[in-house]
Amino acid sequence: MTRLLIYEPAYERVRADLAALPVEPLVLAKGGGFTLAGASIDAADAKPDIAWFSSHLYLNPDAGAFVGAVLGAPALKWVHTAAAGFDHPIFGSIVDKGARLTTSHGQAVGMADTVVAGVLDHFQRGPDRRAAQAAKEWKEFKFREVLGTTWLLIGFGAIGQGVAERARGLGAQIVGVRRSQAPDAHADRIAPMDALPKLLPEADVVVLSVPLNAATRHLANTAFFAAMKPGSVLVNVGRGGLVDEAALLAALDRGVPAHAVLDVFEVEPLPAESPFWAHPRVSLTAHCSGVTGAQEGRNQALFLDNLKRWLAGQPLTSEMDPKDVKGG
Fold first, then answer.
1. Which of 17, 200, 231, 309 pairs as cysteine with 227 (C-beta 3.0–4.6 A)?
2. Contact at 8 Å (CB) between 209 and 264?
3. Domains and CATH numbers, the chain
4. Can you tell me the mean pLDDT for 236-255?
């Protein structure tokens, strides 16, 4: 029987689903310690075949024991993570063992909402409106429409496509940037990464949701910002390392881009002394663009679907190419 490593809070959510499947849950308890069939088991004897790295483990001290069991498994075959990104070195170690890796996109809905909300708040002069309300000032503010704007979405997976659906509904033109150049129903145009120098001057909104790897680290650099259109908005919901932060601050001080909506940073939590906190051209959140009440349920459903596929010998969804993971 397939031995599945799972964290206790995640196990409690799917216990009934697992009971109907030919899996043997190896449960990491909150606070540490493994159980198999209700009995305690030494960490050295855990030896899972597959594992679900659920979101409950993020920023959790129990993650160390979980990762130790995963990397110590002699015959690990597959790991499913609730994360969309795969740049953490742990994932490289997993594929180095010969295991397959699948990711989740349950957070893409919330992330797409966050992107559009951030852009709209800037376009509609949200800070000015709120300041006027706080001061009890009856003031009229002319604002910018989305209709007719061009959105350049760098990274056109589940997140980019979700942004495209929403922005298109408001009248925007969509340019998606990705490796595959096949036409996409969500975009007016699909372009390769090397077309960015020509695309940036045309874009009113530039959204980063591409994976972080050696090729994309500091993708948004001095030359990138110099090519952006006056009045444009930069949004980063990918990884902090996609942006050269010193170059961004200098570009913001020069006025192009006109505004940055940032959910991720190179150092997290963002240090109190960071100039981003008080910069007048920055809106920021604490790496929580996809954290919604429905996210966990979607990620759970994605895992269970992939687990059934695994047990049936069917193709897995959102499986990563090991070359891409190692390149991260």
1. 200
2. no
3. 2-106+294-327 (3.40.50.720), 108-284 (3.40.50.720)
4. 98
